[in-house]
Amino acid sequence: MADDVVFRAEGLTKTYRVGDVDVHALRDVDLDLRRGEFVVILGPSGSGKSTLLNILGGLDVPTRGHVRFLEHDLAADDDAALTAFRRDHVGFVFQFYNLIPSLTARENVALVTEVSPHPMTPEAALALVGLDERMDHFPAQLSGGEQQRVAIARAVAKRPDVLLCDEPTGALDFETGVKVLEVLAHANRELGTTTVVITHNAAIAGMADRVIRMRSGGIVGIERNAQRRPPAELSW
Question: Which CA distances in Å does 220 have to 1, 29, 34, 48, 53?
Answer without folding.
Answer: 24, 10, 19, 12, 17
